[in-house]
Amino acid sequence: MAVTDHVDLNGFMEGVKKRNPYQPEFVQAVQEVAEDIFEFMQDKEEYHSQQILRRIAEPDRVVSFRVCWEDDAGNIRVQRGWRVQNNNAIGPYKGGIRFHPSVTESVLKFLAFEQTFKNALTGLPMGGGKGGSNFNPKGKSVREIMRFCQSFMTELYRHIGADIDVPAGDIGVGGREIGFMFGQYKRITNNFTGVLTGKGLEWGGSLIRTEATGYGAVYFLANMLATKGEDLTGKTAVISGSGNVATHAAEKIVQLGGKVLTLSDSGGFIHDPDGITQDKIDWVKTHKTHRRGRIEEYVEAFPGATFHAGKTPWGVPCDVALPCATQNELLGEDAKTLVANGCRAVSEGANMPTDLDGVHTFKHHKILYAPGKASNAGGVAVSGLEMSQNSERRSWKEEELQQMLKDIMSGIHNSCIKYGDQGGGYIDYVKGANIAGFKKVADAMLAFGVV
Ligand code: NDP
């Protein structure tokens, strides 16, 4: 009997929904990719008959484990940890680790699925994975965070390796947490190897890894604007988030002559009509990252600004927007508001920050819209370069890495044009990114046969 769930998009998605109940984020991510891939596959029987998309949408494995740790008051705490190894057709699994109370298997499966295409787009040999825990680092002491990271790695270490799976940071996991996890890995295995990226410069890390995602998202934005003969000089930018990606995106916008109007966190957003300049960005970095403060305190330091509790910044008129906080933070109505207010370009720093309605709105209005899998790939690209440096046991210079990052972002932009050019000056970057990423992984899978 013929297998039918790959025949059309609806049938395929019904199967995905049935096999992944209560996993809305994962289903959403697959739907966004499948919409483009089914059209692309129409005349490519081999992809259909070999069930390539169905196979990419079924992770190679999902490891779930218990993480016990003791808090400062002596209570035993129990968290859940995961590593999703989605696909290693073109290289070792690669993708970040997220510590946030909203983490579920669905969220990590969506992120690992997206990562598979993103990593392929970079042109580097990296498969897709993602991991994390529902542990909430907010309000925890450094010693508690260290104990949690050590416990997490005590299970994770058996599933990763420099040629197997190389995790990095993500929400809630920065250089400090990578340090605690790397220390524990090294202690357990007695092996100093490039098993994690985002490491400190003294112990195998790469220059510009910290800045790469935010900077890369702005380079991608600049590439998009250049197709219209424009640049960032004098453009107003609305940015969400105030973590690693948001602050470095803001920094690069300012460096390229733009004016940043907003930043946010889960408590609300700040609007600074005078512009968030480099000294203000430095204040946010210190305040949010090192002192674990809230963005609302910005208005005390810079009284020209206002704080809007519980709101997202998409109602502030702007030329360009960069969602850099989290998934599904920019909804259909927000997309309509942005377009109505004259926003001409959106470059996603976060993963899947725009919901499907929002994506359809941007596409309908044919604005310059880059999905995260293309525009935020700079971080994982420099992670890939960190892996290369670790293998070679050397460190490249900052100028070399800056140039490589720029080149990689331009390369991704070109791939999007190759498969997303719709004629009449409109480039569908979502379609371009989906097809370019899919094709690379799919062709490798075809070469391997049915495995
Ligand atoms: P950080 O932890 O440094 O910062 C996250 C920011 O997003 C914080 O300002 C946080 O606010 C805010 N945020 C988190 N959850 C929510 C929420 N539910 N609602 C509103 N705001 C929220 O993370 P990163 O900057 O590293 O990551 C941001 C995004 O970029 C994520 O989607 C991540 O997957 C993606 N990304 C990151 C890469 C990297 O290199 N770091 C690479 C590629 C993608 P609060 O402090 O209140 O929690």
Secondary structure layout:
Layout: H1 9-19, H2 24-41, H3 45-49, H4 52-56, E1 61-70, E2 76-87, E3 93-99, H5 105-121, E4 128-133, H6 142-156, E5 165-168, H7 175-189, H8 209-226, E6 236-239, H9 244-255, E7 259-265, E8 268-271, H10 278-290, H11 298-301, E9 306-309, E10 320-322, H12 332-340, E11 345-347, H13 356-364, E12 368-370, H14 372-375, H15 378-392, H16 398-420, H17 429-448
Parallel strand pairs: 3-4, 3-5, 6-7, 6-10, 10-11, 11-12
Antiparallel strand pairs: 1-2, 2-4, 7-8, 8-9
Bound molecules: NADPH dihydro-nicotinamide-adenine-dinucleotide phosphate.
NADPH dihydro-nicotinamide-adenine-dinucleotide phosphate is lined by residues 169-172, 213, 241-246, 265-267, 324-326, 329, 349-351, 376, 379.
